[in-house]
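Got a spare moment? Tell me how you read both lines of this record:
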Amino acid sequence: YPAATWQFDNFSNEQIDQAISCINPTRATRPDSIPNVVIKECCSLFLPFLVLLFRATVTLQYYPDDWAHTEMLVLCKPGKMDYSSPSSWCPIVLSDGLACLLNSCVTEKLTTMCERHKLLPSHHFG
């Protein structure tokens, strides 16, 4: 493999605070997870603990198995005449709120570093 282009720095308070400000408070999480609205409304209380938790996942290279677990609900779309058609159903994926927040922080950091070091092809979109 080629030499690493950059060293992955751990998360700052500002990065996690920015990720919290971007989460949708009405988006559903798994029933055994902290709801997004609680994370968002109690940001000042949670932030010091989330920073320690997220930094530990990077330092220890450990991603909790429970965070990788998702649940899928398939709901009927109202007013459809034929429920044998796949377009009459709406899949909803529920995942852990903290896992989504961590994934958001990692995605933002990777995207920024790839753009800064020009690692993405010029014709890459999305």
